[in-house]
Every structure is written in structure tokens, then in C-alpha cells.
């Protein structure tokens, strides 16, 4: 899901929760980064719902980690190498 200016805080939190296993793929990492950036843009001190909460400080920390991971995964996807060899006798 791509978050837009018409997305709600609930949309961003849903995307955040759906992408928690971000290390599994570049898509999940990008999706979580997008949710984190959206939440940071709203500048909440703390987001709480029921018995769960996310702090602004923890989002900033996660943002840095995700940005590095997304860049690395994106770079790896662009690097495709194939090596063929012939045994010398």
C-alpha cells in the first residue's frame, strides 16, 4: 500500500504492523520505511492504541536502520552477476 496525503494515521499504523518482518524482503523494508516516514511527518510524541504504543524516538532510530537496509537491498537488486567457468586441465 502506498501512503499518500489522503492516508490516515490508521492506514500508516496498519502498514507499519504489516511490515514488521522488514528484514525478509526489500518490499517490506520499503513499506515499513514509508510508514515510519509518514508517522514522523505527523510528528506525534507517542502513538498509542489499546495496549500498544510507538514513540517518536524509536521511529527515528528505526528510520536510520531502514534507510540503510532499503538502500543496500536496492543496490543488491541492481547488481546481477553471472559467472561461467571452465575447468582447466
Structural class: mainly alpha
Uncertain runs are 77-83
Order of helices and strands: HHEEH
Beta percentage is: 5-15%
Q: What percent of the residues sit in helical stretches (DSSP H or I)?
A: 55-70%
Alpha plus pi helix count: 3
Compute the average pLDDT. 76
Total separate domains:
1
Strand order of the largest sheet: 1-2
Cα distance spanning the termini: 55 Å
CA radius of gyration is 18 Å
| Main beta-sheet strand count, sense and barrel state | 2 strands, antiparallel
What assembly state would you assign to the polypeptide chains in this entry? single chain
Total count of strands: 2
C-alpha geometry: globular
Overview of the molecule:
A hairpin with a 2-residue loop joins strand 1 and strand 2. This protein has one domain. Helices cover 56% and strands 9% of the residues. Strands 1-2 form a two-stranded antiparallel sheet. The protein has 89 residues and is mainly alpha-helical. The longest helix has 23 residues.
Amino acid at each position: 500500500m502506498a501512503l499518500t496525503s489522503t492516508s490516515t494515521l490508521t492506514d500508516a499504523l496498519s502498514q507499519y504492523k504489516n511490515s514488521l518482518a522488514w528484514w525478509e524482503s526489500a518490499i517490506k523494508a520499503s513499506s515499513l520505511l514509508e510508514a515510519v516516514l509518514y508517522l514522523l511527518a505527523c510528528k506525534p510524541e507517542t502513538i498509542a492504541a489499546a495496549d500498544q504504543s510507538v514513540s517518536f524516538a524509536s521511529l527515528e532510530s528505526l528510520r536510520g536502520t531502514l534507510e540503510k537496509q532499503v538502500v543496500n537491498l536496492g543496490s543488491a537488486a541492481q547488481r546481477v552477476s553471472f559467472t561461467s567457468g571452465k575447468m582447466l586441465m
